[in-house]
Fold:
Amino acid sequence: MRRYAVVGTGARAEMFVRALTTTHADRARLVALCDPNPLRIAAHQRWLAETGHPAVAEYPAGQVAEMLGKENVDTLVVTSVDRTHAGHIVTGLEAGCDVLCEKPMTTDAAGARAVLDAQRRTGRHVSVTFNYRFNPVHERVRTLLAEGAIGEVGSVHFEWLLDVRHGADYFRRWHRDRANSGGLLVHKSGHHFDLVNWWLGARPVEVYASGRLFFYGDRGGARHGYARDYERAHGSPAADDDPFALRLADNDRLRALYLDAEAADGYLRDQNVFAPGVSIQDDMAVLVRYDTGATMTYHLTAYAPWEGYRLMVNGSKGRLELEVVESDHVSPADAAGLKGAAVHGVAATTEKGWATLTVRPFWAPPRDVPLPEHSRAGHGGADERMLAVLLGAATDPLDRSATARDGALALLTGLAANRSLDTGAPVRTADLLDLPEE
Structure:
């Protein structure tokens, strides 16, 4: 029975708190919550009481080390703002704890170095929650490539589309400030760039990127006719007819976590996506060269009419093609909420989704690869499968669990892409963080 504490009690913490106190309560015990906002902690305490779970200890954000010692914590779960991850991880390791960290592991090279140094120094373990490794579709891609279905991989093309509900959400909250999140190329490194590293068994060595803030922000809103004159949606008449506005008051859990907690820290979760203050890009193209010699062209669009991705992998014996449609459109009835969920659950929707995987060998007809039925559960059903492994309830024969090194390798592509955006030149990843061979 391992003892867990969680630092950062926003919506990200929901999945972990629920797992620790219900699904995996036979092997895990939640003993403490830590956050700079006591009202947010109080909301979690109320929800624990509703499930019959006793209240847990509470600590302000500046007392993580004290919490870990006083509560005899075995594993620290980090679900706070991205820029704080490295500091909390290092604190946990130096206190003698293992750490389970929400992606990305951190937002800069200095933070990654600090985490890797602390892990080597303490001998403790860091797991990064790369959910998409546990998606059954992505596991099938990994297996096919490892089996040599298309031979040696020469190149990858990866197009990722965030729809105008999910994509917009990064521009309503703290992610809109690059100082907090590192931008979408760093934030999404924990999904997309890690997947390619994992699929290819490769590490990035050189990155070039180009991108801009095209759709969101005050200039985009004015140029495309979407601008509304309000700072935040709640209580603003100008937001009443805005399909990009988030309705916090319409969701009990979002109301408790954010709207009712504003008095403690002033954080606004429902900012206008077309207001000033956005310092991240929404349209980005990336070219990556790997140590195997393979290359990847990648494009992320955060304002698409549908959500999903297309993957094309070219090899010495053929080609693999994957298309995943997570939502075929954005329903107007659902536009004012978070994508597909109350917070971390599944909500009924008219939006459709599916996935197709095709292998196209040389000198033979293409063959469709059978896939499990498309799941609308968290990350295509990956969240529950990941938690079962990370909390010790299931084995991991595909080696899906991500270490601090994996976290750093994924981050390298995003960090190098950001540097390239700033300089206009290709960036060698070793110039940012020189990871020795394992």
Notes: The chain has a mean pLDDT of 94.
